[in-house]
Amino acid sequence: MQIGFIGVGLMGGPLARNLIRAGKSVQVFDLSKEAVERTLAVGTTGTAAASVDALAGCDVIFTSLPLPQHVTGTMMGDNGLYAKMKSGSVHIELSTIDPQTADSLAQAGAKKGVAYIQCTLGKTPAHAEKAEEPMFIGGDAAAIAKLGDMFKIIGQPYNVGSVAASCAVKLISNMVGMTNLAVLAEGIRVGEKAGLDNKLLLELLTDTGARSFQMDVRGSWIANEDFAPRFGLDLALKDVRLGMEMARAWGLNLPAMEATLENYKKASAAGFGKEDCNAIYKVIGK
């Protein structure tokens, strides 16, 4: 089986490396020469592709790209890869995209005989490097069953059924997580007005119903004014925006998350987009 990988950056790179470590034949393409070299350095079964089109003959193609339009631009249209891939091949999309885009990709692929699998990733590059990345998989059932052993090489697969469900799990996770972070930032601001030291407040809240993953991870970073990017604010904004577009398309009214989206927009506009998403604290209450 010949595997192609488009996008071997923070998330795609670790998964491609896992396949190469396992001895799979993998061709990789990325605009970053450094990213390609880092990926190929882990084994002898990986090769660099000169272009996206050079991957058209692969049996399976992964895409891990920043935005939905990057994926559709690469795969769809008269000059997209779907028009050049062989019938019976499989496209596995790893990016965080909305269900509507994923459905359009699945439909476009099907017209060309290409099976579509959405494989949304749940945690961090560090988890991906160790093949511990949760993968929420949905789409073509026959293709998923056929590639089951491959998914186990690169991470921890969970078959959630549909393409929409695969997209939704990650978007829901980030919408809830980023809303929790915004609420935590609001609480810290209230504590400051009350004269409480931030570190003491967080310590006291740890044994209450206010405790959350975001408090455990990012609370101390806020208290220490540490805004170094782990998960960038602009990336958080992108995911919350996609999630809200998904919810609106399904007729849902989610005012708390809508307010969170506006706060992330405000923080990005204020120039904090390249900092960690905890930099939302800088605009809360302002």
Write the layout of secondary structure elements.
Layout lengths: L1 E5 L5 H10 L3 E5 L3 H8 L5 E3 L11 E4 L4 H8 L14 E4 L5 H13 L3 E7 L3 H5 L4 E6 L1 H6 L1 H7 L1 E6 L1 H31 L4 H8 L7 H11 L9 H17 L5 H18 L14
Parallel strand pairs: 1-2, 1-4, 2-3, 4-5, 5-6, 7-8
Antiparallel strand pairs: 6-7
Number of domain units: 2
Measured distance between first and last alpha carbons = 56 Å
DSSP strand content: 5-15%
**Ranges with pLDDT <50 over ≥5 residues?**
none
Q: What is the global morphology?
A: elongated
Please give a structural write-up.
The longest helix is centred in the middle third of the chain and has 31 residues, at 163-193. The model has no long low-confidence stretch (mean pLDDT 95). The protein is of the alpha/beta class and 286 residues long. The chain is built from twelve helices and eight strands. α4 (99-111) packs antiparallel against α8 (163-193), α8 (163-193) crosses α10 (213-223) and α8 (163-193) packs across α11 (233-249). β1 (2-6), α1 and β2 form a beta-alpha-beta unit. The termini are far apart.
